[in-house]
Input
Amino acid sequence: SQKIEQNSEALNIQEGKTATLTCNYTNYSPAYLQWYRQDPGRGPVFLLLIRENEKEKRKERLKVTFDTTLKQSLFHITASQPADSATYLCALDEVNYGGATNKLIFGTGTLLAVQP
Amino acid sequence: ETGVTQTPRHLVMGMTNKKSLKCEQHLGHNAMYWYKQSAKKPLELMFVYSLEERVENNSVPSRFSPECPNSSHLFLHLHTLQPEDSALYLCASSQWSSGGGVDTQYFGPGTRLTVL
Output
């Protein structure tokens, strides 16, 4: 079955630097991959989606890359700010023999702490 | 956050109590989900409803009983829970496409459940 691996250790960076978070998956390549942000005690909030035929996607200070050869996605936040501190979740669509489904598989998330 | 609302936000119950969690979505979506989120674990999908019909039940114990009276409302009825059921319970909604298209999910704020 598909497994998602995100660094369980917190990532601490200085304000203004670029934060890079990693999402690795172990099995089939998904049709698309999503990144969500979750603040303590709140539900996840959708940030970006990248499809299997896309190498890179950008939205303001956010950038996502998708390498199906490495089975990896990288999530970058440039010019990071303390307000970016949160847990970031990677999610893939579940694929069965019938093709893509509407079910998402989530990673455990990586906690990002941006120090002022 | 106003797109998907959940009540109550916090709930403390004894093992013999019966309670219900409520979720309402105002996004016009046709699919709703219940997730369980425990510390250091990925989001666990419990139930999926599409067009008010349950399409997924991930071997959840019978002490959890979902109900979806219409496409905007979702309930999770709880009875004789165990302390290990203490977690954050998240509701989400999305627009379901039978062809397995992109499924970005919109989450509510969650209910923090503590079972004594």
